[in-house]
Structure formats: C-alpha cells, structure tokens
Sequence to fold (481 residues):
Amino acid sequence: MKVIEQKGMYTEFPRCGKPHARTTHYCPGCGHGIVNKLIAECCAELGLQDRTIFVDPVGCGVFTYYYWDAAHISAAHGRASAAATGACRARPDAVTIAYQGDGDLGAIGFNNAFQAASRGEKFGCIFINNSLYGMTGGQMAPTTLEGEKTTTTPFGRDPSLTGHPLHVCEVFNELQAPVYIARVSVADTKRIMECKRAIRRVFELQASGAGYALLEILAPCPTNFGMGAIDAASFCMNEMEREFPLGVFRDVGKGVMGAEKTVHPDSKVLAVKEVPRYPTCEALFATPDGTEAPPVEDDPGVPEMRFKFAGYGGQGILSLGICVAEAARLEKRHTLWFPSYGPEQRGGSASCSVVVSGTKIGSPTVEHPDVLVCMNQPSYERFAKDVKNGGLIIVDSSVPVCVDPPEGVELKRVPAIKMAEDFGVPKAANTMMLAALRKFKATGLKDESLETALCASFKKKPQLIEKNRTLLREAEERISL
Ligand code: SF4
Fold:
C-alpha cells in the first residue's frame, strides 16, 4: 500500500501505542481531524515546523503531539494559554500555537485565556467549539446552545438555570490587545477552505511576531451530538452558526477593526425550541419506559458493594457500570455510578465506579473495590493491587497478568473480547463481562435485574435488545466457573 505523506504530520503515529498506526484517535466525522490536518498543512507550507511550539490541551485534542511534527508542550486542563504565555516569552522567535477546546478554554481555562489575550501575549490560540465537552461524555459546556440536549441538560439547556451560550470571540473582541479575532467552521468544503485561510493567517501573524490571535472554529462532534457525520455538520451550519456567526472580528494587519460578522447563506434560523423548565428529579431519573423510578428502600441487611470497571474507551466499560447500577436501582437499592475518562472518548482509558448499598452511600469514589472488571492491561496494573481481601478480579483473557493479584483476592480470566468476536459482535465484549458477573454471582443482584438493565441500555436501539439478551445468555453458558 502506498503511504501518502501528510504535510506537517508524522508518517506514522507509533507514540499512541500501536507501532504503525496511521489513523488518529478521533471519532469518524469529528471536526478535530479536519482541523489537525489544516494546521499541519499550514505549518509545513509556511516552512514553520522547526520554529513552531504547539501547546496541547486536555480534551479530545490532547493527542496532537502524536500527529504534528513540531515541538510540543502538553498543558494541564485549561492551562494551554498560560503555558503558551511561558513558551512565547521564553522563546520569542518561536511560533507558539495553543490548541484548546470549549471546555478547556471556555470553562476551566477561560480566565487564563482571557488574561493572555488582554496582555497581548504573542501566540495564536486555536479554539475548537463543538458546543459541549467531547472527551468526558458530552456534558454541557459554556458554549452549549440554548435548548441543546447534553448529558447534563437532558431536557435542553435552560438559560434560566445554566446561563446563556458564551460568545468567546465577541467577549475577546472587547479587549484592546488582540491583533486578530475570527470565527470559522469546518462543516463543509467551502468553510474548510476558509478555515485554512484563517489558520494560515494565525501562523503568519505569529511568524511576524504581531501579537495575540484568536481563531474560533465551529466543529462537529457526531459522537456526542448523537448524529451521523452529515447531520452533525448540518447542526454546525444550521444551529451553531445561528448562535455563533462566522466572520472576521478583527484583523489589525488588514485594517479590519470591530465586528464584520457574516451568516452563511445556507444557515437556517430555526424556531426556538420549547424548553421544559425545572424538570423534576423523578422526570430526570425516570425508567426507560417513562415510568417513575422505583423508590429506594433502606435495608441495613444489604451490605455495601463497591465495583470498579476499567478498560479502553469504546469497550463499553461505562455502559457496563451503568447496567449494574441500573440493576441495583431496579431492586430499590441505593446506588451511585461515577465515571472517569482518559483523554478522549474513543481509545483512551476509561473507568467507572459503582456502589450498591442497602443504606445511604457516603461517597461515589471507589478506592478499594470488592469486584474489579478489567478489559485491558493498564487497568489491571493500575487497579488490581487495590482490590479488597476476599474480593474478585475478572480480567479479559487477552490481558497479560504480569502481576499477581493481592493475597486473598480471586482472579478469574474470561475471554470476553474473543467471545464477542466469535459471536460476530465485537462491540459486545461488555455484555460478555456482564454475563461473567452473573455467572460468578459477583454483584449480589438478581439475574433478571441485570438482564432488564442490559435491555434498558439499548432503549435508543431497540433492534439490539433481543440480540444482546441472547448474547448474554449464550455467553453465560460458555463461561466456566
Ligand atoms: S467525542 Fe466528539 S470531539 Fe471528541 S473525538 Fe469524538 S467526535 Fe471528536
């Protein structure tokens, strides 16, 4: 196969852990992938690779250091603008580019970014706005649209509860120091070409030491929009551009000052959605069929059980935890589910904690689980040593167990990934692990509850319910005690 070189990028990405990887970690249709390519091209075409320092964020863009062939600094969450300040002051001849998302820049790092812009630090900030937190599961971000559904605004963002969308370009445009502020999009070919011109402009300004530049890029996040790539791009054009008009707000070098915003002719102004106000907790936590959740019943005779589920993002680890928590809820137990993510949704580490108890639960964090389910080696190495004496570790058979489990802890190896592949459903490895939990009676919950919870997890894809029910039962038969 002929390897096509991408200007400005490494030809392979072995640092991501796969020796000859040539694909990025981004989900299909993600705007980051397009922007990454454009940035690499501009940097290379302008001959700036040896002068450029990229400051990488925390968020879905974290792994840009795998891809762009230039110098990199990896900043703590929200601190890319602060790190870029240090870089451009220490190396004034360098071209310093901070790459940040809307959670990273718009929320936790807003003041760092705003003050750097106010001081006119000599770096370019490329800011990806996909209207939510991508890496951590699609929670509301400051840029979330009014009425937009996210995992933390399941009825749509209600400004009376969570404020209005943050317009970063417009806010920064109140400052005196920036030399360039613009908003572009990568939702279609024409916009991508315009985006490349804007990125090139950011590099040119930095190469000439002109001063602070902000480029906001509207980008689709199909995974968290819950859409295919085409619909996600349409969402960017039709709904995001209504809130965040594209255009050059300022380009001092070209004599453009003040807003020069444009709405793309294809943009449609959508009717304002009805947003239900103040949803009740009962509504928020309603059962999948819309009925109210069964009330929790205190039962001091039910001991507290703590679970940890861990693996790679995309293996269904978080869903597996939700199934166990949901099963507990169906049995009127107190329960908590607490996710923890690696640097992106697809491919990075993911884990979640679940606590099930007959009485109120003090903390959702699980440091010493009774049961640990591991789907990859890093998870085993990280969590196995913490399992309680008398506890159980269920680990996928593909994981090399290079460290013995702690004394008094039972280890069971289950070929979950292999079984799922044999069934022709590689994505169902988490269902195989649920079968193992049932087989080993590891949850203290009824088999029917676990099965009902599994089916409920497919409420948005009802065609998969019976398939997964069958997989669960067949896998359980295959797993030996
Ligand atoms: S979660 Fe969204 S922003 Fe993150 S890689 Fe996937 S599509 Fe892109």
